[in-house]
Amino acid sequence: MKPALKAETEDCSYISQMLSRVGDKWTVLVVTYLGEGSMRFSELQRRIGGISQKMLTVTLRNLERDGFVSRTVEPSSPPRVSYELTALGHELLVPVTGIAEWTRANIGRIEAARQAFDRSQNG
Amino acid sequence: MKPALKAETEDCSYISQMLSRVGDKWTVLVVTYLGEGSMRFSELQRRIGGISQKMLTVTLRNLERDGFVSRTVEPSSPPRVSYELTALGHELLVPVTGIAEWTRANIGRIEAARQAFDRSQNG
DNA sequence: CAGGATCCTCCTAGATACTG
DNA sequence: CAGTATCTAGGAGGATCCTG
Q1: With an 8 Å Cβ cutoff, is B8 touching chain A?
Q2: Does A78 sit behind a cis peptide bond, omega within 30 degrees of 0 on the bond before it?
Q3: Which site among B85, B106, B111 would you substitute to test the A interface, given the most A Cβ atoms closer than 10 Å to its Cβ?
Q4: Per-residue pLDDT tens for A71-80?
Q5: Sequence-ordered alpha helix ranges (H) in B4-86
Q6: Which of B66, B99, B118 lies nearest to residue A18, judging by beta carbons?
Q7: A117/B15 CB distance under 8 A
Q8: What is the pTM of this model?
Q9: Amino acid B52 CA to nucleotide D7 C1' distance, rounded Å
Q10: pLDDT tens digits, residue range A48-91?
Q11: Which nucleotide is closest to A50, CA to C1'?
Q12: CA B37 – CA A103 distance, rounded (Å)
């Protein structure tokens, strides 16, 4: 039996990974769009706009590996590959939405702080 | 009066900034330590461990600019500079803790998904 | 259509040296 | 002590070419 410290250290590693993941450039955007329902690769790319094939592929692979997204291939020609959120993926939206809503509610305070800070630096 | 779309687009920019901020390597760690109370630069660096002077400086400046941290200088020699969370900084801990707790609660499901994914890739 | 493989570029972050 | 300035390496992300 490992001491509690070990377990908490491991937890921190996972927490850090998740914060980093949701903080990357595309993950939250992809998850948000998939929150509307199942979607194909090209449709996702078109709707997001500005994401390269490579980054969409990488982002989806990461999400699939962690169990947030499921990938379905219809064996046809040309192939149709669709993605959708798993239950875990939908649940992830809850805490992420928490930060988003907190930010939206506090934009005014943040912006005021920035302007005050920038003024104090220039003056 | 701007249309709603404009406002939402601007919100997304802020939300993206905040997600990116809390997703960077040191911000959450610094905020968490400062959550315990006011702390000096060197104490913060020693307790966090592994963070360079430069990155601690940059992280603190960003937090200060956004109004999450306040900086106090005692004019002495050598100078004593201490940092503490503002009210806004303490409030930020709430949604961030939300993601952290969600992650901690779901580590098992994530880890299981990863192992299943990795097995399916190798086999 | 979906995505693998490359190449390239920029930014982040770390190391180091210096200052008030 | 608490920074600033400079240099550099590594990784994230974009552009492009190619394939089943």
Answers
A1: no
A2: yes
A3: B106
A4: 999 988 889 9
A5: 4-22, 27-34, 41-48, 53-65
A6: B99
A7: no
A8: 0.91
A9: 16
A10: 999 999 999 999 999 999 999 999 999 888 899 999 999 999 99
A11: D14
A12: 23
